[in-house]
Amino acid sequence: MAEPALTGTSVRRPAPAAPQVPDGAPAPAGWRVELRRAFEVVALVGLVVTQPLLDVLGRSPDFFLFHRATSGDVLALVAVVALAPAAAVVLLGAATRLAGVRVRAVAHTAVVGLLLAALAVQVGRHATPLRGVPLLVLAVLVGAGGAVAYRRWSVLGRVLRVAALGPLVFVGLFLFASPASAVVLPRAHAGVDGVAGPGSHPPVVMIVLDELPLVSLLGPDGRIDATRYPNFAELAGGSTWYRNATGVSGWTPYALPAMLTGRYPSTPSAPHYSQYPDNLFTALGGLYDIRAQESITRLCPPSRCDQPVAPEQGLGVLVRESGALLGRIAAPVDSRIDPEESYREQTAAEVGLDAAEPVPADPKFRWDSLNDNQPARFTSFLAGLRPSDRPTLHFLHLLMPHAPWAYLPSGARYDAPDDLPNDGAGWTDLARSRHLAQLGYTDRLVGETLRTLRASGLYDRSLVVLTADHGVSFTRDWQGRGMGAIEHAPGEVAWVPMFVKEPGQRAGRVDDRNWEHVDLLPTIADEVHVRVPWPLDGRSAQQPPRERTEKFFYDRPGERVVLPGGVPARPVPPAPHPLVGTTVGETPSGGTASVAHLGAFDHVDPAAGELPALVWGTVPREVPDGTLLAVAVNGRIGAVVPVVPQDKGGRRFAAFLPDDHLFRAGANRLDIYRVGAGDTLRRLNLS
Where is the Sulfatase N-terminal domain (predicted)? Predict the structure, then answer.
């Protein structure tokens, strides 16, 4: 039935009533809203977590090589990094909907603000000089402003939803365009065998140490300090010491491939056999058995050699170390965002290896009680130093005396905070002292190698090579191996020890030719009578020296830095304080100090191989910076250190006590004194 026509008036029909939705129940289009919010979270988490973490890891293939990660491990880690944080935030936000639609909207806005604040911390660290609390305040303001803008203008949400494609892009760049892609998706490359020539093919024993400046070994006379490093001095006394030798880069992933290929770094490739198919291992592999112990490279293809000792492996350790790395990336303070800083040689005890050698004759080295402290890679290397019917290459790359520093010269270990500064007033001297102590222990390992070679009969017959891939600067304000250190302290970063003992060589000699580490492969090839069938940048030591005196060095592959040549002089070490080594009698007390691990002195067992040799803590705010503190154990002063500005861990002093003789079994007394005029002492009450 048709409605009657109405003229002259209009009728306003009431709008249909909105459906009543119980508080907390989803609206009919709620899933669309949740999907949009999920995309926004994915975009922000991708910018805060996925991109910076995959960027650092993508430029650090050595991280995966050190942990012997398989392609499956790396792909699983990428999935965790790309999906887990975003999924956790999305699910947590969705759960707030149970408290109501309004609560859900407020919670999502808060999440957007927090993620924007976290992003502001990272951007602010790169774009502004702000650090610490001021940067956090700025980030909070940015996050709050971003949250308000998000609520007010819908365009921000639309931009974020488009940016949700970002994590896919970041993952794609990591897998297909980063240096680490060679580890995840290695391409098959067959290395070229060297050509055996006429002449003998002696055993080759090659040790590459890590982060060892030549100047750390030198005494005041410019020779190896035989008092502190008798075994390095012994090796120098029976080999050719190329005193003007330099590495080609301050970074192992570039330096070591250059050494083993004879080519300068040209591209930022992973130190992997698929990227460097032609190297020392392939050149000798057709003729030699290869027994290789690599650490943060994988240049020896599996067809030529396996890796007898591997560090902790699997997805769990990758996730754990990546989480620690993300903490440094996201922190509002400067930190060394370099995975290599966390690499540590596992000990023989940690991997369950038995001692490889009997107790040595040196009574000063407690090998009998501390053999479990040996790096497992070194223990396995020693065990393999045996004569063979076939020519053999024994290769060891040992992360010693590389940081983290944990060894005293005796081989005893000590604990230290992971975030202890290496630069700045007081901290640089502490870092150098810890480095030199670990170098003293490395000297013991060199001595054990020489002893084992002689006991096995290999020493006279072998070509023995010992060097380091790069050095490190301990110059204040320029500590490390980056471009600033290269410019201000090249003698500490570029120059490294280089010893070559030819078969049958008895007398030592010094050769000051302009040696660069691209010369290593051609020199070894000439010594073992193998022709390398690819073009080389290096020059064999059997050829006339190169004419130029300048050094070629690469902070980045393909970007040559030219350094002036010449053997560097040893930096003048700080004079020891006259109080060090003295015995303290009764002194007045006054003032306080807080020591982080005071209880460690209550039960000391030197035979167990661990000593509380690093003491750190703080003093009251009113104690001026520069005030000297004397640290004594059992009444004898082992170190005098300055009070310094508080670091991010709240510490104002740290003292290193490398002398084992300070300690005794059982309870030990730790005293800290404030040093006054005329070296007067006032004992501080410790807590």
Answer: 378-526
